[in-house]
Amino acid sequence: MEVAPRYNPRPMSGQHQRLPLEVDPIRLATREEHLQGTIPLKQMKRLINALSSKEGEVYIDVEFSVDINRVVILAGEIKTETKLICQRCMKEMDLPIALDFQLAFVRSEAEMERLPEGYEATLIDNTTMMLSDIIEDEILLALPPIPKHLDDSCSSDAITEAWNSQQTPEPNTESVERENPFDILASLKTDK
Ligand SMILES: [Zn+2]
């Protein structure tokens, strides 16, 4: 009997490969698995809540391994383009993210405490983890708590503009307050 494959792994251009949704860090570390490819930003719900656009992809180039301290490691780089709202001028800003990271996997709090200095640890609560969750956590950690333009695009004009737009009443409030012509007509009639 022939079993249909769950999906057809189609090689992407270059060295890109189809990334697994779930990973088993311990098993992949023993094989020194190298993963390279992209994950759509849309798959990272917590992250897109913090962004002003959910369009785009996260490029990853990472490798699982067991290091000299026999710790299971995921190391590599993450690159993406994000859009956030500048908290000074309230306009959209681009924030490119390029991270080099190294993450140690531990199975318990006790194991986490035994880690040598300098490790950034993450707890494996199941055998497998969502790859996008691991990557998403790293990007969330890299986002500035209060995003602000770092260049000239955060001009004082833009600040004044944002301030003025907060001061002027909403256009539809104005139309609600405007008197109904029939009411005026009615009051003219009663005045007679
Ligand atoms: Zn700004």
What is shown here, in short?
The chain has helices spanning 25-30, 45-49, 109-114, 131-142, 156-167, 171-177, 181-191; strands at 22-23, 34-40, 57-66, 72-85, 92-106, 120-123, 129-130. With 192 residues, it is of the alpha+beta class. Zinc ion binds at residues 86, 88-89, 91, 149, 154.
Keywords:
192 residues; alpha+beta; two-stranded antiparallel ribbon; 7 strands; elongated; binds zinc ion
What does this structure look like?
This protein is of the alpha+beta class. It has a domain at 22-152. The protein is built from 7 helices and 7 strands; from the N terminus they run βαβαβββαββαααα. It has helices at 25-30, 45-49, 109-114, 131-142, 156-167, 171-177, 181-191, and strands at residues 22-23, 34-40, 57-66, 72-85, 92-106, 120-123, 129-130. The strands form 2 sheets. It has a 5-stranded mixed β-sheet. The longest helix is centred in the last third of the chain and has 12 residues, at 131-142. It is elongated. It starts with 21 loop residues before the first strand and ends with a helix.
